[in-house]
UniProtKB/TrEMBL annotation:
Domain called FAD-dependent oxidoreductase 2 FAD-binding: residue spans: 3-432
Names of required cofactors: FAD
A Pfam entry, by short name: FAD_binding_2
Keywords in alphabetical order: FAD, Flavoprotein, Oxidoreductase
A single MF term (Gene Ontology): oxidoreductase activity
PANTHER family hit by this protein: FAD-DEPENDENT OXIDOREDUCTASE 2 FAD BINDING DOMAIN-CONTAINING PROTEIN, FUMARATE REDUCTASE
Top-rank lineage group of the source organism: Bacteria
Family annotation (Gene3D superfamilies): FAD/NAD(P)-binding domain (3.50.50.60), Succinate dehydrogenase/fumarate reductase flavoprotein, catalytic domain (3.90.700.10)
This protein's name: FAD-dependent tricarballylate dehydrogenase TcuA
InterPro entries membership: CobZ, FAD-dep_OxRdtase_2_FAD-bd, FAD-oxidoreductase_2, FAD/NAD-bd_sf, Succ_DH/fumarate_Rdtase_cat_sf
Origin species: Aquitalea palustris
C-alpha cells in the first residue's frame, strides 16, 4: 500500500507528489492522460503571479501583498475567501527557490507581455517545460507514475479516504489521497447544463472552445459532489478568454489568444459594441472577455483595430482579416456594412484627444458614448484595418471542493483527516469569478505543496495507528 495517492498530473498534482515524497512518503501518481498529453492545463501556462517586496531575479520593482490582494479583490468583485487568497499570495513570494530545485527555470517578462515584468515570473520554455521538469524530478525521487489511469470513483468512509477505483475496475488503496484532477471544462454536457439556454433558445456552451486539456471531464468532481462533499463556486464561472474563432476545439492554449482588444473596439454579431475595452490593464481584464462574448448573439465577437495598433501587442498565430476600407472589412467579417461603419464613426467622434500610452491608464477616453472606452481610445482612422473573429475559450471551471488552509476536503463542514485537494478542483475558493494573469498557477503551487505535506503527515499518522 502506498502512503499517498495523487490523482491528477498537472502542476498542483506534481507539487503535491514532490512535497509528499520529500517528506518521506511513498507516492503513486495517477494521470488520466497518455504520457504524451500529461500535465493537464499546466502544459499551456507560461507564468506565475508573484508577491515580492523588492526586485528579485526576473521580477522588477516590488509587488506587495496588499496590491496583489487588491488586484484579486477587484477582479473577483469580492467573491473570494480572503484568508485562503492571502495564503496563496504569501506562498507565491517564497516558492520559486523550491521550484528551481526541481528544475524549473525562469526568464524575464516577454517584451509583448504588457505590465507583467513587475508581477509575473515567466517559465523558461513555458508550462510544458515546467511540467517536464517536475516529472523528471519526481521520477528521480521515486514517485511512481501511471498514465492512462482515469479514476472513476472513490471509496469513502465517514469522510475518510479508503481507496480509488479506476475506470477499468482496479481498486487502489492508500493511507491518504490528494485530489488534483482538474475541473469539468471538457465535459460539453456539463457546460450546457451550467450555462443553460439563452433567450434565443440557443445553448451558448455549444459554441465554446476549450483552451486546455480534453481530459478534464470532471468525473471526480461530480462524484465528490454526489458523495456529499462541501462545494464552492458557480458552475457557470470559469477562466474564459475570447480566443481566435479558428482555434482547435481542445488544447489551443496561449497561442489562440488575441491581445489587441484594448487597442481597438469589440463588436458583436450585430456590429454593436457591448463593453468597455479600456476598463483596465489587459492582464487584469483579458479573462472577462470570453464570458462577455458568450453572452452575445451566436457567442461570437469581433476585435477591430487599425494600423496604429500594429506592433503594440503580441502578434497572434492566425492573421486577421485585413482591408483598406471599413465597408470592405465588414464584408469580409460578414457584418452589416452600414451598421459596422456607423458604430465605428460614432466611436471615432466620441474619442477625446489625449496623450496615448498603452503602458499606463492614460487619458485617451470617449465622451457621451455607451458603453464608454475609459482608456486608450484612439479613432480607427488609419488603414489598413484588421478584424479578428473571437469565440469563448474555456480554460478551467471554478466549481470546486470547499477547503481550508490545510487543503482538506470538507463534508458537512468537517475537514477530512486524509483527503486533500489542490489546483482547479478547489480554485473556486479563491476565484469566485474573474481572473488576474498568473493566479491559477499560484493557487495550484500553493495548495499542491500544502496538500502534499498534509497528506504525508496523515499517512505517517495512519501508519502508526494514530
Amino acid at each position: 500500500m502506498f502512503d499517498v495517492l495523487i490523482i491528477g498530473g498537472g502542476n498542483a498534482a506534481l507539487c503535491a507528489a514532490l512535497m509528499a515524497r520529500e517528506a518521506g512518503a511513498s507516492v503513486l501518481l495517477l494521470e488520466s492522460a497518455p504520457r504524451a498529453w500529461r500535465g493537464g492545463n499546466s502544459q499551456h501556462t507560461r507564468n506565475l503571479r508573484c508577491m515580492h517586496d523588492a526586485p528579485q531575479d526576473v521580477l522588477v520593482e516590488a509587488y506587495l501583498e496588499e496590491e496583489y490582494w487588491q488586484d484579486l479583490l477587484r477582479v473577483t468583485g469580492g467573491q473570494t475567501d480572503e484568508a485562503l487568497a492571502r495564503l496563496v499570495i504569501r506562498a507565491s513570494g517564497t516558492c520559486r527557490d523550491w521550484m528551481r530545485r526541481h528544475g524549473v527555470h525562469f526568464q524575464p517578462s516577454l517584451s509583448g507581455a504588457l505590465h507583467t515584468a513587475r508581477t509575473n515570473a515567466f517559465f523558461m520554455g513555458g508550462g510544458k517545460a515546467l511540467v517536464n521538469a517536475y516529472y523528471r524530478s519526481a521520477e528521480k525521487l521515486g514517485v511512481v507514475m501511471r498514465y492512462d489511469s482515469a479514476v472513476e470513483r472513490l471509496e469513502l468512509q465517514d469522510g475518510r479516504f479508503v481507496a480509488a477505483q479506476l475506470a477499468g475496475g482496479e481498486r487502489i488503496s492508500a493511507r491518504s489521497c490528494v485530489l488534483a484532477a482538474g475541473g469539468f471544462e471538457s465535459n460539453r454536457e456539463w457546460l450546457r447544463s451550467a450555462w443553460g439556454q439563452n433567450d434565443q433558445g440557443d445553448w451558448p456552451a455549444d459554441n465554446f472552445l476549450i483552451r486546455g486539456t480534453r481530459f478534464n471531464q470532471g468525473v471526480l468532481l461530480k462524484f465528490m459532489q454526489q458523495a456529499g462533499a462541501d462545494m464552492v463556486g458557480d458552475p457557470s464561472q470559469s477562466h474564459c478568454v475570447a480566443i481566435d474563432a479558428r482555434a482547435p476545439l481542445y488544447d489551443g492554449g496561449i497561442c489562440t489568444r488575441v491581445d489587441c482588444v484594448s487597442l481597438g473596439i469589440m463588436l458583436n454579431r450585430n456590429a454593436e459594441r457591448f463593453y468597455d475595452e479600456g476598463e483596465d490593464f489587459w492582464p487584469k481584464r483579458y479573462a472577462i472577455w470570453g464570458r462577455l462574448v458568450a453572452q452575445q448573439p451566436q457567442q461570437i465577437g469581433y476585435s477591430i483595430i487599425d494600423s496604429k495598433a500594429i506592433g503594440r501587442f503580441m502578434p497572434p498565430v492566425f492573421p486577421g482579416n485585413k482591408a483598406d476600407t471599413l465597408p470592405e472589412l465588414a464584408r469580409q467579417l460578414g457584418l452589416d456594412e452600414a451598421r459596422f461603419v456607423d458604430t465605428i464613426q460614432r466611436y471615432n467622434a466620441a474619442c477625446q484627444a489625449g496623450q496615448f500610452d498603452h503602458t499606463v491608464l492614460d487619458n485617451c477616453h470617449t465622451k457621451d458614448l455607451t458603453p464608454p472606452k475609459s482608456h486608450w481610445a484612439l479613432p480607427l482612422d488609419t488603414p489598413p484595418y484588421y478584424g479578428y473573429a473571437l469565440r469563448p475559450g474555456i480554460t478551467f471551471t471554478y466549481l470546486g471542493l470547499k477547503t481550508n488552509a490545510d487543503a482538506a476536503v470538507h463534508f458537512a463542514g468537517q475537514p477530512s483527516p486524509n483527503l486533500f485537494v489542490a489546483g482547479e478542483m478547489m480554485a473556486g475558493n479563491v476565484l469566485g469569478k474573474g481572473y488576474v494573469a498568473g493566479i491559477g498557477m499560484a493557487i495550484g503551487t500553493a495548495f499542491g505543496r500544502i496538500a502534499g505535506s498534509r497528506a504525508a503527515q496523515a499517512a505517517a499518522a495512519a501508519a502508526k495507528g494514530i
